Amino acid sequence: MADEQIEAVRQRIDALDAQLLQLVNERARLAQEIGHLKQGANDAPVYRPEREAMIIQRLQQANPGPLPGGAVRAIWRELMSACRGLERPLRVAFLGPWGTFSEAAMRQRFGDAVEGVPCASIDDVFRVSESGTVDFGVVPIENSTEGSVTRSQDLFLNTPLRIASEITVPVRHVLMSRSGLTADVKKVVAHPQALAQCTNWLQRNLPDVELMPVSSNGEGARLAAADGSLAAIGSETALALYDLVAVAHAIQDDPMNRTRFLVIGMQQVARSGMDQTSLILGVPDRAGALYELIEPLSRHGVTMKRFESRPARQGGWEYYFYIDLTGHQDDPAVAKALMELKDRSAFFRLLGSYPSERATVG
């Protein structure tokens, strides 16, 4: 009896799958129609982060379950990626080689219908994004354990690129090697941030092993695949991609370890309704200058989400301040505050407004 009931339910699932396939293809045809209409406008973007954020937010709010909001987000991200690919596959640069958390961030934001362009350094991601040889770049900006990625911060000082989107990726580090045996490990190779995020585990379990920083975790995995004395730190994706064996899983010191990435490009993003704005300020070297600088935010009711200082390497002031604000640069209160900040700053660089991830978390 149970077998007959299961078969009946499976037949209903098959019928629904057929309906879903028709509906998905109808959506794809409509996306193609929009693509054809855009052909008359040379500056019409293929990727609209604010539009995609609004779609996912609306669907998550309307979702009756039992699918969780995160599953709805993942399904529609991939669906929108496939529809975008019918118009034109996006080229997106990331810190490579393949198998890095930067690649994972790229796929989390753009889906699989994207042409990834691995770069040897964060500098190269900025360079190819500025040159127009790619549509966007993906760069790490901060980690919940180790703080800011200072190279990304420094490169934002002198670039025309804007921030188009943000991605937060859970970071679960795997120690991997050719044999999978601790006894064979003579060196551990990884990006400096990954080494720092696994300090306690490495000190407890491999206290006498040399730690060797490399340009990325993907590069470390590539080296470990070629040399049996090396172990790399990286993702589950890198483990499979480079045909390595896990020595240990989840070796990060913080079980909630996460890295925030930014999507960079020339595109200016419209309002989504749940946005944030990023900027860099330089303060004149005089008493009370910092208070004078941020006072307009309080007066106009604009909330700061992030405020971080970094020593200046040039100019007549001592520090740059990296600030994230709640709201879009076109919101009246934010626009007024930004205008006053610009007038009061020794250095002012607006990095852009873009949908906050809180718009699609769930």
Automatic annotation (TrEMBL):
GO terms for cellular component: cytoplasm. It comes from Lautropia dentalis. This is Bifunctional chorismate mutase/prephenate dehydratase. GO terms for molecular function: chorismate mutase activity; prephenate dehydratase activity. It holds the Pfam family PDT. The record marks 259 as: Essential for prephenate dehydratase activity. The gene is pheA. Residues 1-91 form the Chorismate mutase domain. It is found in: Cytoplasm. The keyword Signal does not apply.
